[in-house]
Specification:
With about 170 residues, the chain is α+β, with helices and mostly antiparallel strands. About 60% of the residues lie in helices and about 15% in strands. It is built from 8 helices and 4 strands. A 4-stranded mixed sheet has the order 2-1-3-4. Strand 3 and strand 4 form a beta hairpin. The longest helix has 17 residues. The radius of gyration is 20 Å and the shape is elongated.
């Protein structure tokens, strides 16, 4: 984590907490993030030193002013002003981490050799929630090189129950 991402995102999260707007800010940051992902040229315009800052701020207001809270809009404008709009997703990632920790939510990245059945997925998530004490949001991916089993990355923990790992240890 960059210190800058953490400081700015923590400040915004504290404002959200003070106003009981954590979920709203989370959703609005993702709305902006999705727009930037769908329109990468917009980031180029917002980061261009050839366009006056006042005009870039006006573009942000035009695009998002009616759709996001004024604090979130000010945050996006500040990131633009500081010349870090190309790194916006990193700021959102830091905010997400704070939001998830506050709400006891853990993102679990699950690799398996084959597609897991619905029952296997439910059981795995239930076990991960019991282990972590958090609500688990699973993200599944197939990796045939695992041979069998699963690898779970959740927060700073990796649980490697793959056959590949067991064969390497053998």
């Amino acid at each position: 984590m960059s210190k800058v991402y953490g400081e700015y995102s923590t400040a915004l999260f504290e404002i959200a907490r003070e106003n009981n707007l954590e979920k709203e800010f989370y959703e609005e940051l993702h709305l902006v993030s999705d727009e930037f992902k769908d329109n990468p040229e917009y980031i180029n315009i917002l980061s261009s030193p050839d366009i006056p800052l006042k005009r870039r701020h006006a573009l942000l207001t035009e695009a998002f002013g009616k759709h996001i809270h004024e604090y979130v809009l000010s945050f996006v404008k500040l990131i633009c002003e500081k010349g870090r709009i190309k790194e916006f997703m990193e700021f959102v990632g830091e905010f997400d981490a704070l939001y998830n920790a506050f709400n006891s939510v853990a993102q679990a990245y699950i690799l398996s050799a084959v597609e897991l059945s619905k029952e296997q997925k439910v059981e795995l998530v239930k076990n991960l929630e019991k282990i972590s004490g958090c609500f688990v949001v699973p993200h599944y991916e197939i990796d045939k090189s695992l041979v069998g089993g699963v690898v779970v990355r959740m927060n700073d923990t990796i649980i490697d129950g793959s056959i590949k790992h067991k064969l390497i240890q053998f």
